[in-house]
Design a protein that fits this description.
Structural class: alpha+beta
Distance between the termini: 44 Å
Helix content: 25-40%
Strand order of the largest sheet: 1-18-17-13-12-9-8
Radius of gyration: 22 Å
Strand content: 15-25%
Shape: globular
Length: about 575
């Protein structure tokens, strides 16, 4: 297997007039397009893509994880949201962890069974179809292509093969009796090798026949509980059978005539909106794309927003998250005043808004009627815990790793609580008429809001089409608790003089990030309604043309078709 990943080609944006799909795996993109051509709408196709990605990219996603969905309904020009994240067991508490030697200073290891939260994806797939689907296709129709792909097999793609091999050890541990269901003769499959997953196919068949009960009750639920409890976990059948998807009101802000939509907490989408509110106070375009000034200001705005998010973002059913206050423009103005244009801030302290007045797949679909589905599905960290329930063909997520173990923290673990969530889908509409501008997202743990901000600014400020917006080199900023410093990671392609300028301003710079290490910067997809990035946000015309791009850091592609 090649140890490097070269970036030597270019892509044109996809342009079409019918439906369009963009995902990180070509086979999944093709399946989504087939569903559209069979009469399904954007929601139907998105679920088909989600299932197919579970087959082709199981390191990153699957039915053993969580998902979020934003759906733009063209008929009423409204954005709807679904929170498909699961809760921790009602038997799990800080006291239980303390008795086992875990606390804030000695946290639960990433792959520990206590990090398994109820998988929310299966219920959210069904609910997405029930609430937003075309009603022309059944759940079985929508899951059939992925089921056949798992049964018949598929050749593993390059980036997926690399990630599979890099984290196969999670599937090979002695306590993971059924990890071999996701291995080929005990090893990760190679690039181009045909891989079959009949156990996952059977899981999809049960879901197709019985719906949510087929997953959260019966054989599959019992297999989940068995593998969790045999490894010392406390998740039980009641935790699974009581799970519900939550319909949520998406949150939004405006940026120079664009309305950006995100999922509310427990998702970190508020980070994007806070950062854009701050950045609206600067002359971004005049700074120049990926200049030292641009990178410094954008980085500082994101640092402030990340700090706020990592304190306030929690399960709103348990902690009253001040979402409206955090995305208030007056609060953003106060946060803007904290930024020094020539010097880095090393502070890691959240603000106070009250007096203002990890691995994932992101994919998106639009249909010929103008509906759009922005969808994200995740195991969290590469195969999650790696634990495979017997005969199920998927791994269980480790989303509970994002709980705080600090008593009094808004995101502190408590029984039956949803954890802070990194995954975030996004949509953009015109601020005045709420016509769809684009559906977009960038996966990748805590990189996700930073990716959202960067690709959106690439289009809105620098006039890039969707493919160019995804191709452009990115940055990622992260606070390191060990040395108590912010670290700035810059992708290969950012100029050396810019790097030296940023170092002079006090940034702890890591550059250039190349090859497979580029996964740090996430993988995104964009489908745009017309060429709005060229027209200073003038409302789109009636002759709809979809423009789409797919991230070169992954194996995927965008595809579409034209209406005859």
């Amino acid at each position: 297997m090649a140890s490097t990943l070269e970036f030597i080609s270019r892509r044109s944006p996809i342009v079409c007039t019918g439906g369009c799909v963009a995902s990180s795996q070509p086979l999944a993109t093709g399946i989504g397009l087939d569903i559209l051509k069979k009469g399904g709408n954007a929601a139907d196709a998105a679920v088909a893509v989600a299932a197919a990605l579970n087959v082709t990219e199981p390191t990153s996603t699957g039915i053993g994880g969580d998902c979020f969905c934003l759906f733009y309904k063209a008929e009423d020009k409204k954005v709807y949201g679904l929170n498909g994240s699961g809760r921790c067991s009602r038997a799990l508490s800080l006291q239980v962890l303390k008795q086992q030697g875990f606390d804030e200073e000695n946290p639960v290891p990433p792959t520990h069974v206590h990090n398994v939260t109820v998988p929310g994806a299966a219920a959210a797939w069904v609910d997405t179809i029930d609430l937003f689907g075309s009603k022309k296709l059944t759940l079985a129709d929508i899951l059939q292509p992925a089921t056949e792909l798992a049964e018949s097999g598929f050749p593993v793609s390059e980036v997926s093969a690399f990630l599979w091999n890099a984290t196969a050890n999670k599937l090979q541990t002695p306590n993971n009796k059924y990890g071999t269901e996701l291995l080929f003769n005990g090893q990760a499959p190679r690039h181009g090798q045909l891989f079959r997953n009949p156990s996952l196919a059977n899981t999809f068949k049960v879901l197709s026949e019985l719906g949510k009960k087929g997953f959260y009750e019966g054989r599959i639920a019992q297999a989940i509980v068995e593998v969790v409890q045999s490894n010392g976990g406390v998740l039980d059948l009641d935790d699974l059978s009581s799970h519900l998807t939550e319909k949520v009101q998406p949150i939004c802000t405006t940026y120079k005539g664009i309305k950006i939509w995100e999922i509310p907490p427990n998702s970190q989408g508020i980070t994007v909106l806070m950062a854009l509110n701050i950045l609206e106070n600067f002359h971004i375009k005049e700074m120049g794309h990926n200049s030292a000034d641009y990178l410094h200001i954008t980085c500082e705005a994101l640092k402030l927003s990340v700090c706020d998010c990592q304190w306030y973002c929690a399960d709103p059913a348990v902690f009253p998250v001040p979402t409206e206050e955090l995305i208030n423009k007056v609060y953003a103005a106060r946060q803007t005043s904290r930024i020094n244009s020539q010097r880095v801030s090393e502070a890691n302290i959240h603000g106070s808004p009250f007096n203002t007045g990890s691995d994932t797949v992101y994919f998106t679909v639009v249909d010929a009627h103008g509906n759009a589905c922005s969808f994200i599905n995740s195991n969290y960290q590469d195969f999650g815990t790696g634990l495979v329930p017997e005969g199920c063909g998927f791994t269980l997520q480790n989303r509970g790793k994002n709980f705080s173990l600090s008593p009094g923290h808004p995101n502190c673990l408590s029984p039956g609580k949803r954890p802070f969530h990194t995954i975030i889908p996004a949509l953009a509409t015109t601020a005045d008429t709420e016509d769809l501008l684009c559906t977009f997202g960038v996966m990748g743990g805590f990189m996700q809001p930073q990716g959202h901000v960067q690709v959106l600014l690439n289009m809105a400020e620098f006039g890039m089409n969707p493919q160019l917006a995804l191709d452009a080199p990115r940055f990622y900023v992260e606070y390191n608790n060990k040395d108590q410093k912010w670290h700035l990671y810059l992708e290969d392609g950012i100029a050396s003089d810019v790097v030296e300028d940023l170092k002079a301003r006090g940034h702890e710079v890591h550059w250039p990030i190349t090859s497979h290490d580029r996964k740090l910067f996430g993988r995104g997809q964009i489908i745009s309604n017309g060429e709005w990035w060229k027209t200073a946000h003038i409302p789109i015309n009636n002759s709809r043309v979809w423009w789409a791009g797919s991230d070169p850091r992954a194996d995927g592609c965008a595809m579409g078709y034209c209406v005859v």
